[in-house]
Amino acid sequence: MDHFEYRDGQLYCEGVSADRIVQEVGTPVYVYSKATLLHHFGQIVEAFAPLDATVCYAVKTNGNLHICRVLAEAGAGFDVVSGGEIHRALAAGGDPARIVFAGVGKSDREIAEAIEAGVGLFNVESEPELENIDRIAGRMGRPARGALRVNPDVDPRTHTYITTGKKETKFGVDIERAMAIFRAHARRLGNRAAAPDRPGLHLRGIHLHIGSQITTVQPYVDATAKTLALIDGLRGEGFAIDSLDLGGGFGINYQAEEALPASAFAEALVPMLRGRGLRITLEPGRFIAGNAGVMLTQVQYVKSGGDRRFVIVDAAMNDLIRPMLYGAFHFIWPTRVKASFVPPAVRTEAANLPGLSAVDVVGPICESGDFFAKDRPLPPVARGDRLAIFSAGAYGFAMASQYNARPRPPEVLVDGEGYRIIRRRESYDDLIAHERD
Ligand code: LLP
Q1: Rg (CA), the chain
Q2: For this structure, is 56 an active site residue?
Q3: Probe ligand 1: pick from 80, 286, 319, max atoms within 8 Å of CB?
Q4: N or C: which end of the chain has fewer CB within 10 A?
Q5: What would the pLDDT profile of 102-117 be if each residue is shown by its tens digit?
Q6: What's the rounded Cα separation, in Å, for the pair 45 and 166?
Q7: Which domain-ending residue is among 266, 282, 298?
Q8: Are residues 225 and 133 part of one domain?
């Protein structure tokens, strides 16, 4: 469920029409719904309430300060993967103790900054990283908490670029090697191991994140079962394991009702995890932000080429790269349509409305990969019409660039009947600001 809907043939985000925003802010523009963000966050919190899970929003999804602040105020922790994301999470009012820090290549500087800030948990992805965090924490005279990220070798059945829990991916350590790594670390710590406030890294948990846009429960169940067996083994050897971070990855509806509700994941996982003496963390990103945002763009020209019709819009791959990078489907529809073209709630069913014709929706960038949709049935559109590109709240602006010297678009946050610009449109001067002598 989200708060984008057509009323009298016009797209609204909560109480604000898309056209009003476009008239006042221009295009392209990202538009987010606060109520939708909170609704999705609440669904996860509620589903996993029997475990009292900590929900750490994955900042990489959409790191806008105001988005992070809305979630921090609702009680979210943050999942971060860089010093910059720690900076964002803290600037948004995030509680450092509820920040979890993952990433295969944490630099010495980032590690020191995280320790300095009091980041709650390092999700450690390799043995050399383990030693490095231990060394830096020791040098700083500070204790740090760590969880070992394991790779459970399950197939999340999603796009290869966002599959992270298979053996051949670069993330975490093979689950079979986890026990040996815990033993070696304990040997290295010697009597430091026993005292949790002694300087150095204290490994107390397990982390996994098997992939993204996952639309079935089984991969989570398989990964969790393997991980619980590991935790039993570790505890059997006397390791005090007190936390399990299951990562993110819950899929959303891009095309139709392909995704599962949060409760479906919880129904399978809660019985496995309840009463095990583990603090549970989740790191959802897309589930919270994906369908809380659209990008609005304006049709520049409509032209024919061979047997194709091109709708050329003023947004481009630099603004939203997912179609080009992953072949991702984003539902696209005019912001203003006559009654017969009002799309039904289920997105793909829109393709069956009578009177549509197939077009390619493309941007102005000098690459053939600069498209948002190919051969897509749309109502007739003309120069000046506005289109909404849906499900753009996650990995949309976050992956935007200035390619072709295009200033990045503004971001707007709708709250009820009003909205605020939460990031202004970049100017031409912004493009060259860091290059001046
Ligand atoms: N935790 C870790 C350690 C992650 O690497 C990720 C995402 C998440 C949590 C959040 O995953 P989510 O709940 O959003 O699925 N740019 C791609 C997605 C990359 C995901 C990377 N890791 C896309 O546009 O589809």
Answers
A1: 23
A2: no
A3: 286
A4: C
A5: 999 999 999 999 999 9
A6: 27
A7: 282
A8: yes
